[in-house]
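Cont'd.
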Amino acid sequence: MASATPDQVRSLDDLGTIVDTDFHLTERQEDIFPYLESPFDEMLTASGGDDYGYLGRVYPAHGMVYSVTMGKADSETVRTREDILEGRDLIGWDKAIATPTQNLYLGAVHHDDLAAGLATAYNNWLLDEIIDTDEGIHGAAVVAPQKPVKAAEEVDRRADEDGIVAVMIPSGSVDPTLGNERYYPIYEACERAGLPIKMHNAGGTMMTRFPSTWKSMTRALPVHATSHNMMHQTNLADMLTQGVPERFPDLEFIVQESGLGWYPYFMRRMDHDYMGAKWDAPLLEKLPSEYLDDQFYLTSQPVEGADDPAYLNSVMRLFDGDENLMFSSDYPHFDFDNTDALLRILRSEFDGQALRNVYGETAADVYPFP
Amino acid sequence: MSEHTSTSTADTTDSDRDDRHRVADADELPEGDRIVTAIDGREIAVFHTNGEYHALSNYCPHQGGPACEGLLSGTLAVDGDDELIWERDGGIVACPWHGWEFDVTDGRHTASDKYRLPVYEAYVEDGTVYVEF
């Protein structure tokens, strides 16, 4: 038997060090409240007053019902070093960077000063009870985007702590978005400290920010580059979940002007989530991607990666573009595509029938031309 | 995992049949409970739910999680009036790793026939729970 060369990997054991860059703690606010500093410790822990149930959680609830939320599926708790070591045994990492769960919602905490205080408390707890570099347990210091100057101070304070290897911004709930100059103190502090910034969203925070995201997108470029595919994904995900293609099985949809690569991603992402949440889309009788394949079509413009044949040809295959893609120019809009932008690439790997489909025969099937 | 889960090794020595494997005394497996056991190197869960016994592989076809150690509940469906209804209560187990749901009566994933937990015959005879394969 031939021996393995140094570059040949047969199993995880051949990889050397495995670093898990997003291993979650499932901290509760009661874990970190004892680590609050003044005045927030007095503010939140001294009083036994009636909070009408509101202050029971200072992190806004997103209100979404997941299978774990509803007690349909159980999930591991990771609130101690022992819990972490159990998880290490399963995942098999040598080093991990611990990321929070509840504090992914820190950016949604309504009281800005308290948010900064909670970040401090979380980091105190992280350093006192969680981080253990001998066991490979590292962490990201969390900062509150509501208070960038305080956040920068928090970075300075934690920068030299053993085991702090990153700073995490709960990016799903930032307002305004992260290009705004108000965040530059955080960036300066992290750059100075040599700490990378982890951006991590939480499912429940992002949708609440969409209206204000529009407000903070003060330039056209970021809006145009992201919003077409974001809005399509949002609509398609909702239509699929509510069973629209199942309710209207003879109806076809044409998804336009959003580029290509997000579409095969979205098909697989929907399938991935759906397999663990079938109960949330009870009307569906097949995979989301199968409905997309059967009743939805994508039009080509604006073709991204037209100078990258390996990319474009593979994207084309990943959603059976020979059956599901239709040429569009978008003329005279300023990002219109020349008619042969696709052809010049695709002709190298796709046959005449595939190209005739893209350029007209699929459209002839979809649209009721007289 | 679930406090309703206990692990044991099925005893085949007291049987003169090698296709039938003793799992437990029937009173060790009350309604709503389950036993996860090893038979011939396979991890098999035996459920007693809705008055019936069901045996399934405890290996999730998704990423190898202990599918049958998850919570047992029902699932949502839509009735003829387009209203959400709860159905198959006590008949759906959700894998604790990623929440993939399987019907314990036939092992099928609720969303796709491509994924199915192998099922085995399970029954009670003379106060003893058996799995047969």
